[in-house]
Design a protein that fits this description.
By secondary structure, this protein is of the alpha/beta class. Helices cover 41% and strands 13% of the residues. The protein folds into three domains: 121 residues, Rossmann fold; 163 residues, 3-Layer(aba) Sandwich (Rossmann fold); 59 residues, Arc Repressor Mutant, subunit A (Orthogonal Bundle).
């Protein structure tokens, strides 16, 4: 295989424009790209001197069509260790399952964001077995757009949801901060769905997925002839969302000059497209998310102070999964339930030993990584239940895990009655644990929680307040 400085990528693609784009993106990180237009040439290339230098393969599913999985299987048979990434316009989970079972390393949706492509290539071509980061699958299960879909009972998480639910009912701008994979986009969508503007125009833009030379026109719009290539007038996302909500994911990746322009637009409530001689009055609500703490970026001159002030009125901090260990069991059962509903998959249970293994990991990729790992395990499970053997990377990393790790009785299977010194715990603490257990078990459906506990919904809310258990339902 080629050295790190001369990594060679084979791209199986018959679209010249896309091939040029992927070639250019890969070149930024030192990749050379060999483009072949059909499966026959790809297979023949494996036997050549150049083919022996390959470090990875990207396959556009459109080229072999329905035979894409057959081609992946053939390539893996000839080169078992070769990372293969499938590029497709389809969001079908069934296709993802079939591609993985055939041997695909990852599954990328077109149009592919540059950062996503680079991340997938870096992850797929690591020299060692993945220890620090498990191989993710970009699965596309449809998201449920309400607060009940946000699973967790840990106090910091419930406090964040309560704050988000309260903010959603207003009209002010809002900012969600948290590590990648903590569920910021899902929470933003839930806030939009619960807001008084839920029926008004809405647009979600992932800033990192938009080329730097296109983001200004996408946000602010442009007039015909405003710049080379502006053959038609384009209404920007800000003007399109007049009366509604604009969601900016990864707002920290917005160029500083555009941050300043956006801050001025929010202050004046007038948007001026590129090349326009006049502006347009707007009424818009901005909800934003950032992987990085923006106040720290402001101090480093990496984020516009005025824009932060504009969207900072409501700031919500989503905790990482390592600070929510008690939620891992409920999240795991929730994800397995949803995964079992996908085409080509089925409902699976999970053993205590597997749960202990999941609970022992610190999940640097957070909830998204947990979901992807469970999806991958479910794809290759032939039995009725996931065991520790279905998570080989975790087993290799963590070694032998005591099945009592993280005490399943505390993690949602039961409630501890005694303190470590053998005395009974206070009734208030036991009651709080029972309520947290019920919220997790019934996935945050508060009406069902109240019914199963044999109390009224208003009584449940009062107890939540008395016991200091915040909720957003």
């Amino acid at each position: 295989m080629a050295s790190e400085d001369t990594r060679l990528l084979m791209l199986i693609d018959d679209e010249p424009a896309q091939s040029r784009l992927i070639t250019a993106l890969a070149a930024r990180e030192g990749w050379r790209t060999l483009v072949v237009a059909d499966p026959e040439t790809a297979i023949a290339t494996l036997g050549t001197r150049q083919g022996m230098q390959l470090s990875a393969i990207i396959l556009d599913q459109w080229v072999p069509g329905e035979d894409a999985c057959s081609l992946i299987h053939e390539l893996k048979t000839r080169r078992p260790a070769m990372p293969i990434l499938m590029l497709t316009a389809s969001t079908s989970p069934l296709l993802a399952v079939e591609a993985m079972r055939a041997g695909a390393t990852d599954y990328l949706i077109k149009p592919i964001a540059p950062d996503r492509l680079m991340s997938a290539l870096r992850s797929a071509t690591k020299r060692e077995a993945p220890k620090d980061e498990l191989q993710p699958l970009t699965e596309k299960m449809p998201a449920v757009l309400d607060f009940d879909a946000m699973i967790g009972t840990e106090p910091k998480f419930r406090a964040a949801l309560a704050k988000a639910a309260k903010a959603a009912r207003g009209h002010g701008h809002a900012l969600i901060q948290g590590e990648s994979g903590t569920g910021k986009e899902m929470l933003l969508r839930a806030m939009v769905a619960a807001s008084p503007r839920s029926k008004a125009p809405f647009r979600l833009i992932n800033v990192s997925g938009v080329p730097a030379n296109s983001i200004e026109s996408l946000l602010f719009g442009h007039e015909q002839g405003a710049f080379a290539g502006a053959f038609d007038r384009q209404v920007g996302a800000i003007q399109h969302c007049d009366g509604g909500t604009l969601v900016l994911d990864e707002i920290d990746r917005l160029p500083l000059s555009l941050q300043t322009k956006l801050a001025e637009t929010l202050e004046s409530r007038i948007v001026r497209p590129l090349g326009a001689t006049h502006g347009f009055k707007i009424d818009i609500r901005v909800m934003a998310a950032s992987d990085l703490p923006l106040d720290a970026l402001v101090e480093q001159d990496g984020f516009d102070r005025d824009l932060l002030a504009a969207i900072f009125a409501t700031r919500i901090e989503l905790p990482p999964l390592r600070e929510r260990p008690g939620d891992i069991t409920a999240l795991t059962r929730h994800f397995l339930s949803r995964i079992g509903e996908q085409p080509g998959l089925r409902h699976l249970s999970i053993t205590d030993s597997a749960l202990a293994l999941l609970a022992a990991f610190d999940w640097p990729g957070n909830v998204r990584q947990l979901q992807a790992v469970l999806f991958r395990a479910a794809v290759f499970c032939d039995g009725e239940s996931l065991t520790a053997d279905h998570f080989p990377q975790l087993s290799e990393l963590l070694g032998e895990i005591d099945s009592d790790y993280a005490n399943p009785l505390q993690e949602g299977v039961g409630v501890m009655l005694y303190t470590p010194d053998g005395n009974l715990r206070p009734l208030e603490d036991i009651e709080a644990d029972v309520i947290r257990l019920a919220i997790g078990h019934y996935r945050g459906r508060m009406t069902e929680v109240a019914r199963r506990l044999g109390i009224g919904r208003s009584t449940l809310y009062r107890k939540l307040g008395d016991l200091g258990i915040d909720n957003a339902a």
